[in-house]
Amino acid sequence: MPAMHWAIGILIFLATVIFMEGFAYVAHRWLMHGPGWFLHASHHRPRHGNWEWNDLYAAIFAVPSIVLLLGGVQWGWWPGTIWIGAGIAAYGAIYFGFHDIIVHRRLQHRYLPKSSYMKRIISAHRLHHAVETKDGTVSFGFLWAPRPEELKAELKRRGNAGVRAATATTRDRVEHP
């Protein structure tokens, strides 16, 4: 198999990371909040211990990346599969760092968001978690999200159905809006 120019590989890698945001939105909205709720529901409830059933999604979504990397490196597949597999893995690493470490504080840190982008994404994610039920939540994206004001208005329009009581504690020790 002929080698691929590194610039093409980088473009494929970046396109894959961007594509993964759309894939994550679709998977979160229609899989995790659909037939996969039996695993994802654990993520909308207080966590006891280090793990929750929802963590299995990380292993499930890692399989295509591993297979593509293995195929490209060891099995002689098209060289682009390496860059696609790496892009999926990079998105997973970004997701873990942002979602599990920064937002849900599964590892202790002192990071406080300063940029308007980070504040917006964190607020949108917390508004998503303000709803404890399978239906009625907002903001399914990860690297892009609507403004918190729009999300709050949408929750209000829906009559705040499923919204967590204001006195409830959260697993990430930061009050949800």
What percent of residues adopt helix (DSSP H or I)? 40-55%
What are the segments in which pLDDT stays under 50 over at least 5 consecutive residues? 167-177
Q: Count of DSSP helices?
A: 6
* N-to-C SSE string, H for helix and E for strand: HHHHHH
Calculate Rg over CA atoms: 18 Å
User: Which structural category do the helix and sheet elements fall into?
Assistant: mainly alpha
| Tertiary shape | elongated
Query: How many strands, what sense, and barrel or not for the largest sheet?
Result: none
> How many strands?
0
Write the layout of secondary structure elements.
Elements: H1 6-32, H2 37-40, H3 56-73, H4 80-103, H5 116-129, H6 148-157
Tag the structure with descriptive keywords.
177 residues, mainly alpha, 55% helix, 0% strand, elongated
